[in-house]
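re: ur question from yesterday

yeah so i grabbed the chain u mentioned. its 521 aa long if i counted rite. heres the sequnce exactly as i have it in my notes:
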Amino acid sequence: MDQTVMLIIIGAGALIVGIIAGKLLFAKNTKKQIEEAELQAQTLLKEAELRAETIKKEKQLEAKERFVQLKAEYEKEVLERNRKLGELENRAKQKDITINQKEAALDKQIKENEAIKENLNRQIEVVNHKRTELEKHQEEHIRRLEKIAGLSADEAKAQLVESLKAEAHSQALTLQQEIIEEAKVKANKEARKIVIQSIQRTAAEVTIENTVTVFNLESDEIKGQIIGREGRNIRAIEAATGVDLIVDDTPEAIILSSFDPLRREIARLSLQRLVSDGRIHPARIEEVVEKTRRQLEEQVIEIGERTVIEMGIHGLHKELVRIVGKMRFRSSYGQNLLMHSRETANLCAIMAAELGMNPKLAKRAGLLHDIGKVPDEETELTHALLGAKLAEKYGENPAVVNAIGAHHDEMEMQYVISPIVQACDAISGARPGARREIMQQYLQRIKDLENLALNYTGVEKAYAIQAGRELRVIVEAEKVTDTESDKLSFEIAQKIQTEMTYPGQIKVTVIREKRAINIAR
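ran it thru and got these structure tokens back, copy pasting raw so excuse formatting
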């Protein structure tokens, strides 16, 4: 590199000399100018040589410094490697010492185990010798007993086993019967206690829903506006809401008729807005009905969210929350479906807590057990199976799904909370005042109940009392014995259970009495 710098400097000097010489020749000036040019060239050459020498010394100094730095780094790396090698050697020595110690301890343990093994072998030999002597004595004893009793050992054993088996079987049957009777008494007592406690601690408001809603008017003049020219307004309302409007002679009132409470509510709110606004025509009717439907949908979601929050149920799918809100506008036998579900959920939680089970899971199943009654679309499935399908679709616990599907015995009960939900559903629907029936249906059910009992031989009279919750059957004493009375009561109860539909339960009481009548004259 130094030679290259020197050559560059010399070349530059030669070039400068050439340029100066060329200028001098080109100008053809005086000799004095040429000499001055030569002096300048020599001066430039000397300066270039000095500059080259300076650069050479600087480069040499830089090279020495770089060499010293690399040497220091190398020595540092060598020291680090030596330190690590030393550490590895120390660890290897320590491991060798530890291994030697473990080998010594293991050898000592092996020797001790061998000594213990030899001792055990000697003891086993002694035990085997004693066992052999004992077997000889036992065989001798058995031969003496057989000689005295006149029976072989197998025959005596068989007789003893048969005797013990018969005695144990007899005792087992007696004990089994006692346990069953005691269990029945305790189970009935505990069941009554749990049911009574659950009912006493639960109270829910019952809303009676009808198939009609009465819409009150300020005056009968508004009826004409609602009907419209040639009935176009009333037809538009019925087409938009799916509700029949009955405008009759009832003063200041219009009747909204539909089996769907949600539709009736939409129609009622829409009419209220139309009447308040005063603009009643088909286009306005469709706009108001659509707006009311959207607002009611929001209200349904709000009701569902408020219900699950009040019940303390978390993690419910948003579609299930919406279905819970829709239950507010549905009824079953005149009992508001949401109130019935809340009441069932509270009963389930109380009963599960009394039985030492999970009350939150039971409450969840109780609240959702009737979600199949408010489907978004019609289906051929029963409400229990549809509810189980919906619960499974939205990721509910398998125990909850089974409880929903089995609360009317349409699925096999696989979890303990399933019968709890079934019992609480029956309690909520069967308590007095919870549900209502049309008068004709009630009278027909009472009549069918009495006729069913009268079809049996020996039945003289049958009376359905306590709103059809008890059936008293009077039989002829000459044709029916006391034993047959028990059988008759059971058969009538079974036939009612299989052939009739009724809320709650029906108690069947068979009465048999013997009357001896004489007249003193």
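noticed a couple things. Residues 31-149 form the longest helix (119 residues). also The beta strands are 212-216, 244-246, 253-257, 331-332, 335-336, 459-465, 470-475, 507-512.
anyway ttyl
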